[in-house]
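Example 303, ligand zinc ion.
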Amino acid sequence: MGEKLSITLLGTGCPSVSTTRYGPANLVHCGEMTLLVDVGSGATQRLVGCGTSGAAIDALLITHIHTDHLVDLYQFIITSWHQNRDRKQVIYGPPGIRDFVDATMAVWASERELRIRWEKRASLAAFDIEVHELDNEGLILDQAGGRVSVVMVEHQPVEPAFGFVFEAGDKKLVVSGDTRYCDNLVRAAQGADLVVHEVFVHGQMPVKGTRTKEGLANVAAYHTASTDVGKVAARAGAGCLLLTHIVPPDADRLRLLSEARAEFDGPVIVGEDLMTVDLVECTVCHGNVTFALPSVKPGKRTG
Ligand SMILES: [Zn+2]
Ligand SMILES: [Zn+2]
């Protein structure tokens, strides 16, 4: 049973507050590993919403240091303890993540000490945090029938920013993290069964309030336009494209879909919170809706 490979989108939103698209976070089952990719706002609620909890997470992978991707870090750590976690936390992230974790723990230290003394729980292991700072590409996990690799993506001025490649058996899943169109990601995603990619929908974030034209152009410039995202999947020869980190979160789904499909012939799915794509079962599940994905990549189809 070592070849499990699936992703559940816990949050498909971005920094904008949305009641339907929570902050970026993904639950990945890779081999026998249970992994959390990013821990945006609402991630712990969504973990419980899909029947699991922070106690079950073997490792937390952080794509980059942007608030929307790790604002619920402390919430994840403290609730894992409440959820009876009795083993250390393991966190992988970019340089700077160790200071970030240490500072986050320090802010809450006195409150935590009081809580620990009062609640008298049997284990404090959930507060023992093993941090791995990643400064290069390559394999970071190869265990329990799954493999995880880091890919550099382009989200400057935030550097480095990572995407992740998950492999189990003959299946391959790629998560883009936040990036503009990135040739390096396309290379890493070659032959992937599923590319999970961020997207920015042009024209759907108007200049209003404190927004400026220049600021909006900057936001667009470090994300991937809805008119470009299909190219990533097409050039990677991917089996399926799943869109997430939808900016803005209330973007028109049909327009987004048609723009992405213009560049990619395979299945394109506009992601929703708590949607699961299972690459071994070749299924997509969301709420009461379940449908099958083609089990053969479009490029390999015969006849
Ligand atoms: Zn983001
Ligand atoms: Zn970002």
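Summary: The CA atoms of residues 39 and 70 lie 5 Å apart.
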